[in-house]
Design a protein that fits this description.
The complex is a heterodimer of chains A (573) and B (419). Chain A has 573 residues and is mainly beta. Chain A contains nine helices and 43 strands. Chain A is globular, with a radius of gyration of 23 Å. Classes of the chains: A mainly beta (573), B mainly alpha (419).
Chain lengths: 573, 419
């Protein structure tokens, strides 16, 4: 027996690196993993339901919504929720009023519908909603709201008194026809948030195509290949609530796409934010920011445009993170069933290699939309949450193994490899959903990230993360003074228990949604955080020491931690 | 003109495809060459022949045609186009009447004149192709049918179906079973259900390079061909429950018939049932030990599902069995790439490229392999060729060119009504 134990010790000593061992110890060894628990609407008081406007004519926009987000519109330190619905359009005349919804977080696990007062319900002609993105475009410290539609988009400025004003026309950001995802980021590092808006296909009720069963006269949703592609939009923030459409001169409009998810991140570590954009039935775009307001599309050359077989896929949700901790942003794209999802490792020369591994197998029969890298167990590395659902509600009549409603998935990052831990992560992973949007945020301020799922034609699902805060953490609310208000592009480096980690603050990611803007730094079992360094997009660096744990801190660019100004976090674990 | 006589017994497909007179039908649907000429072409140069003589003959010819006196009409139209060789309508009427009377050789010559006079109109080359099909001149028939499709034949659904069916038959004869299958699928999807179409489906499914007309009532394997065709017809009509039942019964009744298990495997694969598909392909290999495609499909499923090592032996056997098949080298090359044998992968992909230099996906795979091999310049060249060929393939697809592949790597989803 002694010899047996000795052998095990030797094997462990040889096989486990000091870094791995430190992480193992920090993560609490065999401690129980967090689970996600559904918060019923009777508890949350969120009664809004998505209406996809499904018709016998099977109009394509019916398949794509909706989105939503966590954001703190009233700066009370609690994440509120905004949900995007369909609405009147050239093919849909709802029999009863349909609107988006803003829910105020009461801080006690319940929400109150404040849509009417806030004035963000939309619901007018041209408001067949897709998604939304929050961002403080005017730098007044309040989160504004951009809503994408099949029809005409809307920009709502936050008045600071619980109301919003629609300034779309003044701002010049309507981007008509069919927009899907919107992403706030500062492409020219002028300290203001610019706006990228994905355009999907050229579509109209009058130009609709019959796709279906001629014999029975039954229609299916058309494959987007049938429709013409369109250029996406890039709007430059001029200040004074005005934007200039720079789609053409920037090079963005040169690439015609059928675009869904977009994520803004720095892929070549040059301090300029690039864009990765998923396309449906066309090659994905990788827009590299060349500086001087110009982008170059290098999807094919970079290896993220096509499948391994050289085929364009049906890209939907995307995200970016440094999953292997090498200091370079990697990419993810979810596709339709049988196409496999891709995890693209950054090879540090603007080329990428698909390393999907276990994710590929687990998603072979699934169609992915919302997705997000986040550290669900606060062990310090980014895990991955995926929500799925086939776009065609009649797919089961055609392919017996593919379902319309599909399960959620969560993958844990174990030393740079993703392991499917869905089965151990809660009863909700045994259920199927027609999921589309996904937003991540700590709505109960307990230090672990929760999840909001927006279902197509169904009620949203709010999931509370139970146990993610059993590991130690520190939440940061970054307040820029010179950099863009979202601090998009900031690099946060933290050290705890001898392990140094870093994270680049991205924007967008997922599908039709944006996320809690705060950053939660997980440190596993480490009792304290030794240091945090924030390199702001402006180049300014703030170094923080003597930090508490299990709380949120407000960090102001150039000033560091603002004493007594932490958020309303209760660290209620 | 006897409208009912026009196509009876001429197309190897049920008469409803071309129930009305081709001439009347084409005029009614805007495919009449003169109508198109008014829209698109400059006026046809006229000869110096006496005007009154031509007009008299033309009038008599039209009268004879309208009276149904086709022999007289032929004689008069011949005379008229001799006087005025640039008279498009004359050639067109002469050609269609000759076609109606089974005089395909002369009809073909007259359609050629129409084509040369109106090179931008689609119906004449389609009709020329149909004549050539009747004459057994399959290469030219295919060329002219495709030319006509590219030029467009307006909204003439009847002619479109005849054109597509014959293009499918010609693909069948050439042994391009996947392309033929896709064309027949589109006809079934359009609710065609004639017996000849069912038989054509069966021939494509069982990879038999024959025409339906050769599978007569006494043909020994007619029943298995018909049953396989009916199963595939159900797939094409999206009746998946019926398709599953028909395929299950087919393999139960004909478990050893060549290519039945292979066809079943393809169906199972389309249903995302990979293990069922692999089992069917393995049964096909037992039935037909030299079946390269069944091996290739197993290899491809393993490749697609990131199980490259499991797919390698099947691809290697396929290459041995069918060294002239580009797909064998392509799949093997990709499997070798995935298993880290970059040098061998390059060799196989280059072999595939030699055999099919116009296939974009081979260049795409090569670009990846060259990158890993550190051959950056060649990688860039391969990527550029891929981009060019891929664009051409997309443009061709947008023009309605049907191109079936042994292994379809893109998902089949709901398609528009019109092909």
């Amino acid at each position: 027996m002694k010899y047996y134990l000795l052998a095990i010790s030797i094997i462990l000593a040889v096989a486990i690196s000091p870094r791995t061992l430190a992480r193992f110890e920090q993560s609490g060894g065999t401690a129980a993993k967090p689970t996600f628990v559904e918060v019923p609407s009777t508890t949350s008081k969120i009664t809004w339901v998505h209406d996809n406007g499904r018709s016998d004519a099977r109009h394509l926009p019916e398949t794509c919504g909706g989105g939503g987000l966590f954001f703190d519109y009233d700066n009370d330190g609690w994440m509120d929720i905004y949900l995007v619905n369909s609405g009147p359009s050239d093919f849909y005349k709802p029999s009863k009023p349909i609107r988006n919804a803003l829910y105020h977080n009461n801080g006690d696990g319940t929400f109150t519908d404040v849509t009417e007062k806030a004035g963000v319900g939309c619901g007018k002609e041209g408001d067949f909603g897709m998604g939304a993105a929050a961002g403080d475009f005017n730098g007044d410290g309040r989160q504004d709201l951009y809503v994408t539609n099949y029809g005409r988009n809307r920009l709502f400025v936050n008045n600071g008194d619980g109301t919003f004003t629609d300034i779309t026309d003044k701002a010049g950001v309507a981007a008509p026809n069919w927009s899907t995802c919107a992403t706030w980021f500062d492409y020219d590092n002028d300290g203001k948030l610019d706006l990228f808006v994905s355009s999907f296909v050229q579509y109209s009720a009058s130009g609709s195509v019959f796709c279906g069963d001629n014999r029975l006269g039954r229609r299916y949703y058309c494959i987007p290949r049938v429709f013409k592609p369109r250029p996406s939009f890039l709007f430059h923030n001029e200040g004074d609530s005005k934007f200039t459409d720079v789609s053409k001169q920037s090079g963005i409009a040169s690439s015609l796409g059928k675009s869904f998810g977009a994520v803004a991140t720095d892929l070549n570590n040059d301090g300029l934010i690039d864009l990765f954009v998923a396309n449906d039935t066309l090659a994905n775009f990788l827009f590299v920011n060349k500086g001087g307001g110009k982008f170059e599309e290098i999807g094919l050359a970079s290896g993220v445009g096509y499948s391994d077989a050289g085929s364009p896929r049906s890209g939907m949700g995307v995200d970016a993170t440094d999953f292997d901790g090498d200091g370079w942003q990697d990419l993810f794209v979810a596709n339709i069933d049988q196409e496999l999802f891709s995890l693209y490792r950054n090879e540090k020369d603007l080329t990428f290699t698909d390393q999907a591994g276990e994710i590929g197998q687990a998603t072979r029969l699934l169609s992915g939309w919302g997705l997000k890298f986040f550290d669900y167990d606060n062990d310090g590395d980014p895990d991955l949450f995926l929500v799925n659902g086939h776009p065609d509600d009649m797919v089961e009549m055609q392919v017996s193994k593919v379902k319309y409603k599909e399960p959620l998935l969560i993958f844990e990052n174990v030393d740079g490899k993703y392991r499917n831990v869905s089965a151990q992560s809660g009863e909700v992973f045994k259920k199927d959903f027609p999921a589309r949007g996904l937003s991540v945020g700590d709505f109960d301020n307990d230090g672990d990230l929760d999840v909001l799922i927006i279902n197509n034609g169904d009620a949203p699902v709010l999931l509370r993360n139970e146990g993610g805060n059993s590991n130690n953490w520190l939440g940061l609310n970054l307040v820029a003074t010179k950099s863009n208000p979202g601090a998009i592009g900031a690099i946060i480096t933290w050290t705890a228990g001898g392990v140094k980690r870093s994270r680049l603050k991205t924007s967008g990611g997922g599908y039709l949604s944006s996320h809690d803007p705060r950053e939660i730094l997980g440190v596993g079992r480490a009792a304290k955080i030794d240091s945090v360094e924030i390199k702001w997009p402006s180049g300014k660096i703030d170094k923080l020491t003597d930090l508490p744990i299990k709380t949120y801190l407000k960090v102001v660019e150039g000033e560091g931690v603002v004493k007594g100004a932490s958020s309303a976090a209760k660290a209620s674990n | 003109m006897n409208r009912n006589k026009v196509t009876n017994g001429k197309m190897s497909i049920d008469p409803p495809f071309l129930r009305c007179s081709l001439a009347i039908c084409l005029v009614a649907f805007g495919c009449h060459p003169a109508a198109a000429q008014q829209r698109r072409a400059p006026s046809v140069p006229r000869t110096a022949a006496p005007q009154e003589n031509f007009e008299q003959v033309k009038e008599k010819a039209d009268q004879a045609r309208e009276a149904g006196d086709l022999e007289a009409a032929i004689t008069l139209y011949r005379k008229a186009v001799t006087i005025r060789p640039g008279w498009v309508d004359g050639w067109w009427y002469l050609a269609t009447i000759l076609y109606d009377k089974d005089q395909y050789a002369e009809a073909a010559r007259a359609f050629k004149q129409t084509v040369s006079l109106q090179p931008k109109v689609g119906a004449p080359p389609v009709m020329l192709g149909l004549c050539e099909f009747r004459l057994g001149d399959y290469d030219n028939a295919l060329k002219h049918l495709q030319q006509g499709r590219r030029l467009g034949i307006g909204d003439n659904q009847e002619l479109s179906r005849v054109m597509r069916f014959h293009e499918g038959l010609l693909m069948l004869v050439k042994g391009e079973f996947e392309t033929a299958q896709r064309i027949f699928d589109s006809l079934s999807y359009d609710n065609m259900n004639q017996e000849d179409l069912i038989i054509a489906h069966g021939l494509a499914s069982l990879r038999l390079a024959m025409l339906p007309s050769q599978v007569n009532k006494d043909y020994g394997d007619r029943e298995v061909i018909r049953r396989a065709g009916f199963a595939q017809h159900q797939v094409a009509q999206k009746n998946m429950g019926d398709a599953q039942r028909e395929y299950d019964r087919l393999v139960a009744d004909y478990p050893k018939a060549p290519n039945v298990q292979y066809a079943y495997g393809l169906f199972m694969s389309s249903q995302r049932n990979d293990e069922g598909a692999i089992a069917a392909f393995q049964r096909e290999i037992e039935n037909s030990p030299k079946h390269a495609l069944a091996r290739l499909y197993i290899a491809y499923i393993r490749l697609r599902n990131k199980e490259a090592a499991d797919g390698l032996p099947f691809a290697q056997e396929a290459v041995t069995l069918h060294p002239r098949l580009p797909l064998s080298h392509y799949i093997l090359g990709r499997l070798l790439f995935e298993t880290g044998e970059t040098g061998k992968a390059v060799e196989e992909l280059e072999a595939a490229r030699r055999l099919a230099p116009e296939e974009p996906k081979i260049h795409f795979a090569l670009s990846r392999a060259y990158i890993r091999a550190g051959r950056k310049k060649e990688a860039e060249q391969a990527r550029e060729i891929f981009a060019r060929l891929n664009k051409a393939a997309e443009d061709a697809a947008a023009q309605g060119v049907v191109r079936g592949e042994v292994i379809e790597e893109e998902q089949e989803k709901a398609k528009p009504d019109s092909p």
